Amino acid sequence: MGFPSQLAALANEFIGDKRLLSANGYQKLPGGVIVQWGQFNTGAIANNASGSHTFGLSFPTAILQLVVGTTQGVSSGVSGSEGFSVNSVSATGFNWTSAWGSRSDGDGAIRYIAIGY
User: Fold this and answer.
1) Please, which residues bridge with residue 70 across strands?
2) Measured CA distances, 98 to 23, 84, 103 (Å)
3) In sequence order, what are the beta bridge partners of 111?
4) All residues at 6 or more sequence positions from 58 whose CB lies less than 8 Å from its CB, including other chains
5) pLDDT tens track for 11-30
6) Fewer CB within 10 Å: C terminus or N terminus of the chain?
7) Whose CA is closest to 41, among 116, 93, 98?
8) Which domain holds residue 57?
């Protein structure tokens, strides 16, 4: 097998069912590592509210890392600090708790990046 055919075989590892390129998507890498990302709206929640999210694609073996952030700093004309803490993580999803620093409620959107295999 020459270099061009090796390159074509490697390129095939990054297309088709190995990826979903959307706001909530994933990329399966050669060797079994999966990078997954997404976002979801929590709706109107108060400080210390909690919930869970299921990944669009379960990690077959384990999750290695999860990074979570918020997408909104102003809601209903009220600005303030906000965030989310992750309470538990599994190969299928995670549980979170809201942490509003200076306001009592508002819509919250959570964005995440997860890496596993």
Assistant:
1) 110
2) 22, 4, 11
3) 39, 69
4) 91, 92
5) 677 677 889 999 999 999 99
6) N
7) 98
8) 3-116
CA angle 79, 84, 86 (to 5 degrees): 180
The count of domains in the chain is 1
- Residues 74, 76, 79, 85: is their CA dihedral positive or negative? negative
CATH of the domain at 66: 2.60.40.3940
The pTM score is 0.76
CB atoms within 10 A of CB 65: 10
Q: Give CA–CA dist 60/25, Å, rounded.
A: 16
What is the rounded distance in angstroms from the CA atom of residue 114 to the CA atom of residue 65?
Answer: 6
Judge whether residue 49 has pLDDT over 90.
no
Q: Where are the beta strands (DSSP E) in 9-99?
A: 19-20, 25-28, 34-46, 50-54, 63-70, 74-75, 78-79, 84-89, 93-98
